[in-house]
Input
Amino acid sequence: MKGMVYNTLLESEKPLMAKKIAFKIYRKYDGYRMSRFMVRDILWKEMKGQFKYDNVNYTYSIESESLESQTTNLEEDLTEVNKNKTSNNIDYDTLINKLLSKEEKIIIHDFKKLIKSNYLNVNTGNKKFDELLKSVVKDNKITTNEEAFLKEKSIELGLPFDLIGKAKEMLNSGNPYLDNIIHLIYEDGKITENEIKFLKEKEIEHDFTKSFVNKRFWQIGVCYYLNELIKIDSFKNVIKLREIGHILDFKLLNSDTWIILNLDIHTSNNINEIIENCQTKIEGKLNDYIKERYNFYNESLIESLYSKIDLRNTFLNESNSEVNLEGYAKIIKILNQEKIRIGSPDVNLLVENVKFRIQNDIWD
Output
């Protein structure tokens, strides 16, 4: 239960009251009930010194620890949730039929939807305000003077939204400076060891947490560059493992947090090794789960199940319309080239807006 509280606070965009933590746990962990009193007991008895408490607003917040600690905490509590549930009694033939009958694009869409579930890209709808917010949060903090300035501008311009709130929302969900680096890493379709090293260097330089950088790297990758990622065989296998686990009701593989934690860019500077490490970890956990719960386990089961899911076609079309995604990739490449060639803030904003609309099927 401690892990549930810990990860709920870790994933939250803002500090939470105990009753809100309990509610989020209920929603995230399949109706697992925990009262606000239980939440407080866990916080003050088991997690003392690991969180910040605001005694004015009665809220709790937490700073991230190592990715390994987060993974262990999450595994313990999702395993506990699985133990409290009865098996869905699926047999081998039913599992195979489900794997064979589900369309490739639906499997990929479901994976993207899971990873995208906690991704937030703040946009006020006003270019000047967007640029202002980006400049304020670039150093990953909001100073007293910056906060005063934003407050003054909100009142002075009679804005329908709170600039300080938007800035903090942006700060808690992503960082424009970091996001730009990650986009640059992905955009040419190749992720080199030097690029991974550079990202880690910027992580240290700007005092970003490992968890924050790792999460943002994969959220942006899956949301915007999934067609490139699924050209990597081991990444296809991670998607396949998620689908197998989903059918078998394995809670770890229904958790975007757990999957991202295991895609840890800090385990290597080689993108293939990073994903292969994740695949190996997931295979081990899934094998243990199947062995404990189902009577069709054998040592070569996972390998045989891979062949039942065909992800050879790498074009992802979420809108189901007849579109040429390879053509879209070329358009995006041209847009990026023109953005660099012209180099003005207005063109940069225009290009990013057009890319966002193309990649998220926003046509109206």
User: Anything to note?
Assistant: Confidence is low (pLDDT under 50) at residues 317-325.
